[in-house]
């Protein structure tokens, strides 16, 4: 569906032009225009009866490993089959003009495939499975279903025969220490005049949802890019109400 061109306030263009550093905090909406479903927008298909936030727990995996693994295997194949969008590409280009740090909640690799280096994957990666028992990274074969399937046995750990789990961060699990450190350091390095782009996140999940406010306290200009209101809209200096790919292509291009 064609989208009307979103109006970008001059203040947003000016802020980006004046910034030395740009910190990008991205969420699922960043990849929506690539065809990757967000978490909290309507779900379709096999898992439509399930709240994705209920599948994204260790308890769900332990209760029914093949059911949860099938969901992740399907998402791995889905992400592998789509391309970075114009927003990912625009951010990669911005890195040639400003000091850009990307800290993402996304478990896909679309920033990287557009040419960005990602400082932090706060919620891990779809592509770094590991043993659920002994934590050994799993680098063997992973069968990716071409169609959604209801059950798929997870691979078995060669070290201990435990079930292999996706390398993502589930609710109640701690975030990768390094990702948190790098993100907090990037926030603390912000100075007045620097810009934070908060792109495509509902702002519901902590600790990631707390970084925009921390950045504002450092004096940075906080700009949200999201077609809908989010939990962080109210604390942003500027809001651009449009889809990420279209808006980023317009403001960086
Ligand atoms: C577009 C668009 C377009 C659409 N362009 N935009 C403090 C207070 C309260 C609770 C807690 C707290 N601290 C910790 C908690 C508990 C919990 C939490 O936050 N709960 C809240 C829900 C209340 N947090 C945790 O458990 C975290 N761990 C932790 O804190 O450890 C310490 C600890 C341990 C034990 C006890 C207590 C503390 C871990 C969180 C892990 C989140 N994991 C998931 C799943 C990853 C695996 C997977 O991929 O399956 O991460 S949940 C899911 O939500 C996923 C996402 O990264 C995350 C955020 O979602 P996101 O990106 O914002 O997507 P959506 O779908 O919510 O929103 C999409 C947005 O895009 C919308 O706004 C759209 O409008 C927009 N959009 N199209 C731009 N084209
Ligand atoms: Zn193991």
Automatic annotation (TrEMBL):
Compartments (UniProt record): Cytoplasm
Gene label: cobB
Domain of life of the native organism: Bacteria
Organism per entry: Janibacter limosus
EC main group: transferase
Deacetylase sirtuin-type domain residues: 1-253
Family to which this protein belongs: Belongs to the sirtuin family. Class III subfamily.
Name the record gives this protein: NAD-dependent protein deacylase
HAMAP family per UniProt: Sirtuin_ClassIII
């Amino acid at each position: 569906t064609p989208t009307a061109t979103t109006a970008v306030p001059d203040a947003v263009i000016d802020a980006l032009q004046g910034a030395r550093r740009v910190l990008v905090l991205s969420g699922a909406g960043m990849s929506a225009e690539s065809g990757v479903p967000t978490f909290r927008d309507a779900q379709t298909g096999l898992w439509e009866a399930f709240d994705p936030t209920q599948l994204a727990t260790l308890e769900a995996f332990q209760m029914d490993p093949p059911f949860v693994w099938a969901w992740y295997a399907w998402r791995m194949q889905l992400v592998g089959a789509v391309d970075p969008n114009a927003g990912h590409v625009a951010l990669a280009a911005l890195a040639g003009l400003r000091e850009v740090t990307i800290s993402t909640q996304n478990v896909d690799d679309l920033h990287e495939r557009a040419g960005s280096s990602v400082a932090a994957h706060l919620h891990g990666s779809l592509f770094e499975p590991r043993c659920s028992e002994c934590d050994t990274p799993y680098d063997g074969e992973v069968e990716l279903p071409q169609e959604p399937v209801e059950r798929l046995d997870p691979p078995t750990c060669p070290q201990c025969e435990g079930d292999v789990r996706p390398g993502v961060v589930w609710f109640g699990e701690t975030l990768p220490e390094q990702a948190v450190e790098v993100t907090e350091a990037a926030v603390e390095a912000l100075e007045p005049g620097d810009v934070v782009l908060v792109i495509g996140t509902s702002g519901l999940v902590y600790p990631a949802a707390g970084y925009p406010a921390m950045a504002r306290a450092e004096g940075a200009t906080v700009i949200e890019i999201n077609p809908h209101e989010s939990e962080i809209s109210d604390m942003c200096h500027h809001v651009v109400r449009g889809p990420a790919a279209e808006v980023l292509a317009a403001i960086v291009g």
